[in-house]
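A.,

Following up on our hallway conversation. Structure tokens first:
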């Protein structure tokens, strides 16, 4: 709704509060969180919290207001709908619920590029959630100034409010509702803090294409000449680990925009997974978990209040939220030049994909739309095979528009920039999970370095008969046999059968995008049969 008065809404909520913590900094928020109960400090000073029943996002409880703006634009097959009247009833009920409570208000920014910036106010009764989002978004004046043209966004967070499906048009007592016309977000019935962060990203993903900006669920860092490299990948593929490189300043680890001016971070912090975190494997992230003000979600402590990152008794989705500027090597202003390299990360547990492949622009869009990785076999009896996971644009839950909208924008960005796209497999080789072994991190880093530094621009390539992409014949420092996964299997026929299965999964998944998507750029069942 053009001209909506966000200040009136924000001030009305603040005025009804019994007390207001206005843009409090970390020490005050830490003290308040401990005072509210349920939070405690590690021996190093990080704040440990638990999110209760919800240890991850609730995608089925996320709704977008269906109105004149969204009706013909939102990909409703992927998004729940709520009516404008139902949203307003929910807004009124949450406002009444919060009245008389002590509230924390944080006025923050999203978008390091002043031309594409959001003025985000978060109101919550939970001090640790206020600290979380203060860590994750951009704190005005800390290297990035507020633009006079920043678009106002208001997020009202009520974790203890229970929605009524009959009254509010939702599915359960939990609801995440986004009004794209007025840029209001309501979050209720869940304490999982990632919902706040991802709601900002969802708003950005809806509006950015209209401004000629490609929104991206990726990490990004800088090359020696200021050019950006992008890293797309689902959880467990190594996106955060591989983009954190002391020789390449980090632009950001999760959410970015690609405009005519280059790449910019949407956020001002990092939300890193901590399961099995170690100082040796990920020293920068490990160090961040030992600082005062970092929020550790669902991390178990030992008797000495030291984190047990290997303990997943609460959830495997343990997280650390900290400001990006605590890292040793970050890009100035959280921006970078036009990308030179685009990397799609996958952890293929089927043991089929090569460790590295060069993609044509059409193939890059195909793999972007597919968003493939594979989860390893679970612990349930009888489950022995990997499970394929496809998430369009490597972030389908946060993409309100049809994936082909983002795919077409990526195709245009690749055409204009001349950026080279690569598929980097961090998964299994020599057999599927349970038979083969995980590609070692040293080889992965060597392959990535060769791709980023241009070492592979003129090397001999072989044509992959399954996926049609090019695979380097040799890379210095990497065993040649590793580059051809079929050679690494003890039984070539078994590899062929597994490969045909994966090709079929890719093609079946791609059917949902319709004829406007270029399925010909993907794998061929005929080639797999041959």
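Then the amino acids I'd put at each of the 530 positions:
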């Amino acid at each position: 709704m053009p001209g909506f008065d966000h200040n009136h809404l924000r001030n009305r909520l603040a005025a009804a509060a019994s007390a207001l913590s206005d843009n409090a900094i970390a020490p005050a928020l830490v003290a308040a969180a401990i005072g509210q109960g349920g939070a405690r400090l590690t021996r190093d000073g990080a704040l440990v919290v638990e999110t209760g029943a919800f240890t991850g996002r609730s995608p089925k409880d996320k709704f977008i207001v269906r109105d004149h703006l969204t009706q013909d634009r939102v990909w409703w097959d992927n998004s729940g709908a709520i009516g404008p009247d139902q949203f307003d009833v929910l807004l009124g009920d949450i406002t009444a619920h919060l009245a008389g409570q002590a509230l924390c208000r944080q006025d923050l920014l999203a978008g390091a590029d002043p031309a594409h910036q959001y003025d985000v106010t978060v109101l919550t009764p939970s001090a640790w959630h206020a600290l979380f989002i203060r860590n994750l978004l951009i704190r005005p004046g800390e290297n990035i100034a507020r633009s006079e043209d920043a678009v106002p966004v208001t997020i009202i967070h009520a974790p203890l409010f229970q929605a009524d499906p009959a009254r509010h048009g939702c599915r359960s007592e939990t609801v995440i509702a986004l009004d794209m016309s007025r840029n209001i977000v309501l979050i209720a019935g869940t304490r999982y803090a990632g919902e706040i962060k991802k709601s900002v990203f969802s708003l950005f993903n809806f509006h950015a294409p209209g401004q000629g900006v490609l929104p991206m669920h990726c990490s990004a860092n800088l090359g020696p000449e200021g050019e950006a490299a992008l890293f797309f990948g689902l959880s467990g593929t190594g996106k955060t680990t591989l983009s954190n490189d002391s020789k390449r300043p980090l632009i950001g680890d999760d959410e970015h925009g690609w405009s005519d001016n280059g790449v910019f971070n949407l956020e001002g912090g990092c939300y890193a997974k901590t399961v099995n975190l170690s100082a040796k494997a990920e020293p920068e992230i490990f160090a961040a978990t030992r600082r005062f003000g970092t929020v550790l979600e669902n991390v178990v402590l030992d008797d000495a209040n030291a984190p047990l990152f290997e303990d997943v008794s609460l959830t495997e989705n343990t997280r650390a939220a900290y400001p990006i500027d605590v890292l040793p090597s970050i890009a100035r202003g959280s921006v970078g030049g036009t990308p030179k390299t685009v990397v799609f990360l996958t952890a293929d547990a089927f043991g089929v994909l090569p460790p590295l492949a060069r993609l044509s622009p059409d193939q890059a869009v195909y793999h972007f739309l597919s968003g493939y990785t594979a989860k390893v076999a679970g612990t349930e009896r009888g489950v022995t095979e990997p499970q394929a996971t496809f998430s369009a644009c490597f972030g389908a839950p946060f993409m309100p528009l049809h994936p082909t909208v983002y795919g077409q924008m990526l195709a245009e960005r690749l055409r204009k920039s001349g950026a080279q796209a690569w598929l980097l497999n961090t998964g299994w080789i020599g057999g599927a999970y349970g038979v083969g072994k995980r590609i070692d991190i040293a080889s992965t880093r060597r392959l990535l370095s060769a791709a980023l530094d241009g070492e592979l621009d003129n090397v001999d390539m072989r044509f992959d008969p399954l996926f049609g992409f090019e695979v380097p014949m040799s890379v210095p420092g990497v065993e040649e046999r590793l580059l051809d996964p079929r050679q690494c299997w003890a039984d070539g026929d078994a590899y062929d059968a597994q490969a045909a299965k994966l090709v079929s999964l890719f093609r079946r998944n791609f059917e949902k995008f319709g004829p406007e998507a270029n399925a010909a750029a993907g794998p061929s069942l005929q080639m797999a049969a041959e």
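The first helix runs from residue 6 to 16. Curious whether your intuition agrees with the design.

B.
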